[in-house]
């Protein structure tokens, strides 16, 4: 779940706050777990010699943070040795299904052990045993010696060790794991975990267990019969026949499974327990190792610690990083020079600055006098970080619960507005409940804040400020000017990683914010923010504003060095109020029309289902891939089929489309059934539930920082994927209607991506065709197939159209052959002829792929970077996919940039013309407006002009308009 700041729930506060044994205890770090978490958490990055080091960087950061937090005297890092161990001797298939580690990770294993030694930590591994066995052994030895043990891991297999004197700690969630947490996961105490695992098995490790018994059932059985042997010896007394038979039949398999999951706590210890102590690291050796990997930000942190401890004088750091006092909140080190791949060890995750370096001073504001102090601070500093808390994630209808402000790093406040008032507002008075806390009336807070929030001399900073903008707008405040730390990060690093506040705090501040679930709970017990006690609300909300300001302080200067100022200032930042207003407007839906469509689809689904069953000769659950696969391949013998890891046949759309092309009617009817079922569940049913009672409209959320190309994406509900070319999709669009007295106006760019191909590849023949206003597909066919325009047939034009659009998406000969119903050889001949005729395109495509290989990204005409992480992948299929993306991304991204330029200009143009038209939706190349009927034609002409003038290219941009009572009519 994501809160209004764009923060994804991940973790709790810093580890110092978590309960843990004292410093005299032993910490056993699951090194193998750290490695894989680090590898998958960070984007690929390399050091100057091309060696991948993303896992090394993540591992080093995690170690550094852990050591700083726990300050323990005894720590050891434990690793797996070789893949095979003693378990394979009695069960050869143990972990047999696990794929080999990724090729990019293999060279990092040795470097990670070298990193451990550079930190002067004991490094433990033993051939023939797993890391978990060594952890169990040392935990036993330490416990027997009267020392407390903390296992730093979240691995469920280690939970069997939890007990008196032995606890676990999940460093990613900053969560202590004790008996209660083990019981929550397995339903039994830690000493019974192995029995539950023996029954449930583990598909990842290929532990067989007993078929049909999951963790919940296993826990019930073990609780009832005491342990595994007690259960198996009484298996004949189990009431359920199927379960009884399984337990009797697979009893020996369960016993083997128990031996597989039971950790060996008596493995030969590779080093004496007394050796597992933290030694003072050789800082020069450590810094030398980190510099060799290119980890400049980690070097800066180590040198900062050395400065604080007096080991080196201020300013003597040699890494080039700024000292901690060089800028508010700490300046980030300069980026390293790109490696040949474009990925460097100084990738996004490496730019860190410890949040704990600055004292946190958070204040609860409950009267106007205190609020005026903060307003005066904002006028003095000229900057103000702002965040809002609400009772829901729909800004068009959410109640504003509170506002948080920050004026400098570490200095923030929270202004509660509606805490404790929810029940009273709903008419559910509880006379025994305490009165609501002291709060300033919302109207008075808005009146006090309006001046500073609208003051052009004070910059307001938010994270995902689009959400907050709507809340303030609904309360009569037009916030301006603004900066958005989420969009700054997006302009800098696009699709390289996510841009939620939690993720950015981890990446750049080495800090884990308070998770939303810690404050409000989860599931059925989750409360809305207005029910949160003020002390907890203060810690959470003020931290959001504080982190927003720190991220802005760190990231904003990088726009200049990265040459991303234009992208941010002209494309992304100005779009915030435009999209906020669009979301707030919403779009009107005809509920009755949707209900009729749902009923119609339900009837058709039954008809198609009967048809499928008739072809199959039996009834079965079409929605079950397992049953469908068995019917198609075991019963009907339509082919050999292909089974996945679960043993079930694959029945994805590609498999069904192949069968349909071979003439098997049942496959086509199943595809029909799936399409109808998706339309019903995703649109006709779901959209009815999304109509807001207060507005009678659907208010989709547009994500401004979610795609790699700069396109907006629509969620909750997604209104960008409604099918356009099917009759069912067109019926759904007819349910989007104009309010009485209004019309819907749809304006979309005509063939914008083909025009951009001609422009970016400088294809003279295509540019001439566009300038002359020719039918581009017919013109292409004439050029490629040598057929005069006056002799053009629809079939030849269709082939040219398929190639035109296929080229944009990197279509292969095989893909084109399926689309046109021809052989792959013929399709390859068409593509070859196309590229020979338009040789400029082939040159541009090769140059674009080469640029991507060199830099790790491609660039739109307006300077936006679209990252291509797989462009150097050793796997040919993944590399080819990335190459196709590299060709498409600058085209799609430039189209998205042009659309943004148009959207930013349209509201001002409409206002200047006195038009009452409102922008409702943006769907790829289309904008949808609601406009008074009398103004429709005038608005259409005005918006067309703005869209066509959004960019000056060597080919004309053409926008086409339609007007109607519903979306389908207008489109």
> What kind of sheet is the major sheet?
6 strands, mixed
Output the strand order for the largest sheet: 3-2-1-4-5-6
> Unreliable segments (pLDDT under 50, ≥5 consecutive)?
1-22, 311-357, 422-431
Secondary structure: number of strands = 23
Question: What separation lies between the terminal Cα atoms?
Answer: 34 Å
Give me the CATH architecture of the largest domain, please. Answer: 3-Layer(aba) Sandwich
Instruction: Give the overall shape, derived from the CA principal axes.
Output: globular
The CATH class label of the largest domain is Alpha Beta
Percentage of residues in DSSP E strands: 5-15%
Helix/strand/pairing category: alpha/beta
Q: What count of structural domains?
A: 5
Q: Give the fraction of residues assigned to helices.
A: 40-55%
CATH fold name of the largest domain, please? Answer: Rossmann fold
Q: Please, what is the CATH homologous superfamily of the largest domain?
A: 5'-nuclease
In short:
With 971 residues, the chain is α/β, with parallel strands linked by helices.
Report on this model:
It is a single chain. 47% of the residues lie in helices and 11% in strands. The chain is an alpha/beta fold. The protein has five domains: 15-275, 5'-nuclease (Rossmann fold, 3-Layer(aba) Sandwich); 283-350, no CATH class; 355-423 and 435-564, Nucleotidyltransferase, domain 5, CATH 3.30.420; 587-698, Taq DNA Polymerase, Chain T, domain 4 (Up-down Bundle); 707-763 and 838-971, Alpha-Beta Plaits (2-Layer Sandwich). 45% of the residues are buried. It contains 39 helices and 23 strands. The model is unreliable at 1-22, 311-357 and 422-431 (pLDDT under 50).
């Amino acid at each position: 779940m994501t809160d209004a700041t764009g923060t994804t729930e991940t973790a709790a506060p810093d580890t110092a706050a978590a309960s843990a044994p004292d410093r005299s205890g032993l910490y056993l770090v699951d090194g193998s777990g750290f490695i894989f978490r680090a590898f998958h958490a960070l984007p690929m990055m390399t050091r100057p010699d091309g060696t991948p080091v993303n896992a090394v960087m993540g591992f080093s950061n995690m170690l550094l943070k852990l050591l700083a937090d726990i300050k323990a005297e005894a720590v050891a890092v434990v690793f797996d040795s070789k893949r095979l161990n003693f378990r394979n001797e009695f069960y050869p298939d143990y972990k047999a299904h696990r794929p080999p580690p990724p090729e990019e990770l293999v060279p990092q294993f040795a470097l990670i052990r070298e990193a451990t030694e550079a930190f002067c930590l004991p490094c433990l591994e033993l051939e023939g045993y797993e890391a978990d066995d060594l952890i169990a052994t040392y935990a036993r030895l330490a416990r027997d010696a009267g020392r407390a043990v903390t296992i730093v891991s979240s691995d469920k297999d280690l939970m069997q060790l939890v007990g008196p004197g032995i606890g676990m700690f999940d460093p990613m969630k900053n969560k202590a794991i004790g008996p209660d947490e083990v019981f929550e996961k397995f339903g039994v105490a830690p000493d019974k975990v192995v029995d539950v695992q023996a029954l449930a098995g583990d598909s990842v490790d290929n532990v067989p267990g007993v078929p049909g018994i999951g963790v919940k059932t296993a826990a019930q059985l073990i609780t009832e019969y005491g342990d595994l042997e007690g259960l198996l010896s009484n298996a004949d007394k189990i009431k359920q026949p199927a379960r009884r038979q399984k337990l009797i039949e697979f009893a020996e398999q369960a016993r083997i499974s128990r031996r597989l999951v039971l950790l060996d706590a008596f493995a030969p210890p590779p080093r004496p327990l007394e050796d597992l102590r933290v030694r003072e690291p050789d800082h020069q050796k450590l810094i030398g190792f980190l510099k060799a990997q290119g980890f400049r930000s980690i070097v800066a942190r180590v040198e900062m610690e050395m400065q604080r401890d007096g080991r080196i004088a201020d300013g003597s750091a040699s890494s080039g990083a700024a000292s901690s006092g060089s800028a508010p909140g700490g300046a980030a080190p300069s980026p390293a020079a790109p490696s040949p791949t474009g990925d460097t060890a100084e990738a996004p995750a490496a730019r860190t600055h410890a949040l704990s370096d600055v004292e946190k001073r958070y204040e609860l504001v409950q009267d106007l006098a205190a609020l005026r102090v903060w307003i005066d601070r904002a006028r003095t500093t000229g900057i103000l970080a702002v965040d809002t808390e609400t009772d829901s994630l729909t800004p068009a209808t959410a109640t504003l619960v509170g506002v948080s402000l920050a004026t400098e790093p570490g200095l923030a406040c929270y202004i509660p507005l509606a805490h404790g008032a929810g029940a009273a507002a709903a008419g559910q008075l509880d006379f025994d409940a305490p009165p609501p806390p002291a709060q300033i009336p919302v109207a008075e807070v808005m009146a006090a804040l309006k001046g500073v929030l609208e003051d052009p001399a004070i910059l307001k900073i938010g994270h995902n400020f689009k959400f907050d903008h709507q809340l303030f707008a609904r309360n009569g405040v037009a916030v301006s000017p603004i900066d958005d730390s989420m969009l700054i990060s997006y302009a800098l690093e696009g699709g390289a990683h996510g841009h939620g506040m939690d993720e950015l705090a981890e990446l750049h501040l080495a800090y884990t914010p308070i998770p939303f679930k810690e404050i409000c709970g989860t599931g059925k017990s989750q409360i809305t923010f207005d029910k949160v006690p003020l002390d907890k609300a203060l810690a959470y909300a003020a931290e959001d504003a504080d982190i927003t300001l720190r991220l802005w302080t760190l990231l904003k200067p990088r726009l200049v060095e990265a040459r991303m100022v234009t992208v941010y200032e002209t494309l992304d930042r100005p779009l915030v109020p435009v999209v906020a207003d669009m979301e707030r407007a919403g779009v009107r839906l005809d509920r009755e029309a949707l209900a009729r469509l749902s009923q119609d689809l339900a009837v058709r689904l039954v008809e198609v289902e009967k048809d499928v069953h008739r072809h199959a000769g039996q009834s079965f659950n079409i929605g079950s891939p397992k049953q469908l696969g068995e019917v198609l391949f075991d019963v009907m013998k339509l082919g050999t089929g292909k089974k996945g890891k679960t043993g079930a046949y694959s029945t994805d759309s590609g498999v069904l489309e192949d069968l349909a092309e071979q003439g098997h009617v049942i496959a086509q009817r199943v595809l029909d059934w799936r399409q109808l079922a998706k339309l019903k569940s995703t649109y006709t049913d779901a959209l009815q539930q999304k109509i807001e009672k207060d507005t009678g409209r659907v208010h989709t959320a547009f994500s401004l920082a979610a795609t790699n190309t700069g396109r907006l994406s629509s969620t909750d509900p997604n209104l960008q994927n409604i099918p356009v070319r099917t009759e069912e999709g067109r019926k759904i669009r007819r349910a989007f209607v104009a309010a009485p007295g209004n019309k819907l106006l749809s304006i979309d760019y005509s063939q914008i991506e083909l025009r951009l191909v001609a422009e970016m590849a400088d294809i003279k023949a295509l540019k001439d065709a566009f300038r002359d206003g020719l039918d581009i597909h017919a013109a292409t066919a004439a050029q490629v197939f040598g057929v005069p325009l006056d002799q053009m047939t629809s079939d030849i034009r269709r082939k040219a159209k398929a190639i035109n659009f296929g080229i944009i998406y990197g279509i292969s000969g095989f893909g084109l052959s399926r689309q046109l119903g021809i052989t792959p050889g013929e399709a390859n001949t068409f593509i070859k002829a196309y590229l020979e005729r338009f040789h400029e395109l082939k040159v541009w495509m090769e140059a674009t792929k080469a640029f991507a290989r060199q830099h790790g990204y491609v660039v739109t005409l307006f300077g936006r970077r679209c990252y291509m992480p797989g462009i150097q992948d050793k796997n040919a299929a993944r590399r080819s996919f990335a190459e196709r993306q590299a060709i498409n991304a600058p085209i799609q991204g430039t189209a998205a940039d042009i659309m943004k330029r148009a959207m930013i200009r349209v509201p001002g143009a409409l206002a200047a013309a006195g038009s009452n038209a409102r922008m409702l939706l943006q769907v790829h190349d289309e904008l949808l407006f609601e406009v008074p009927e009398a103004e429709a034609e005038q608005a259409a002409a005005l918006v067309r002009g703005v869209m066509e003038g959004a960019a000056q290219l060597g080919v004309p941009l053409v926008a086409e308009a339609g007007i109607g009572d519903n979306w389908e009519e207008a489109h």
